[in-house]
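Researcher: Hi, I'm a grad student and pretty new to this. My advisor asked me to get structures for two proteins we've been looking at. I'm not sure of the right format, so I'll just paste the first sequence and hope you can take it from there.
Model: That works fine. Here's the first sequence with its structure tokens right after it:
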Amino acid sequence: MVSTVFLLWCLWGVTDRETLRCLGRNIRDARLRAGLTQECLAELVGVHWKTIGNIERGVYPFAITHFVAIVQHLGVEEGSLLEGLKPPDAKRIHAVRKALARKRKPKADYLAKTGKPAHG
């Protein structure tokens, strides 16, 4: 079964390759502005320097934990590394949300009673 997140991601019109390349370019630019080598950033993040090279070229899908460490060690805002991504296709998002909308409404009083959203 295809996950909803994956389906939305594909329908947004942004491919994994485009995303990784954009992130990689932004990470490389931020690393160079910070005056760090790939080897230095790799040591700080806790990965091999070749991994940093692969991330910067957009050929290595990396963990969110590595993304957080990269952001912290480069001293940049996480959003700055996402700049340049194509915006999602609003028509497709609307179509998917409409198609996958819940058939029944969640219990309105559950949130009021517990302060938590209803599960399942």
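Researcher: Oh nice, that was easy. Here's the second one.
Model: And its structure:
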Amino acid sequence: MVKTLQVTKNTFAVMAILCVLVAIAAPFAFGAGAEGAAAKSTEALAAAGMAIGAGIAFAAGALGTGIVQYAVCASGIGVLAEKREMLPLVIIFIAIPETLVILGFVLAIMLIGKIV
């Protein structure tokens, strides 16, 4: 069980870092920083890059959260079976991974706001 939690924590960390890096780098990779006459031809690519970045930001955040909440909720149920007074702490531990989905959602909304 400890090895599974360690793998899950590592997966969560990698997904969070990947989510942020891809969401930041995708618009630049598709030419969002171009200027002048070339900017007109790359506007569509920049919008596509931002849309891809927004999608990856939200999808990676949701995937990472799902993986982590699997382990956290299973452990929380085990704790609650033995000690009912730990309910507030378990609820907090279940809510913490949700912040990654919220961060991915906010980042996606910010990128989509640049497109429109």
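Researcher: Is there anything I should tell my advisor about the second?
Model: You could mention this: The radius of gyration is 19 Å.
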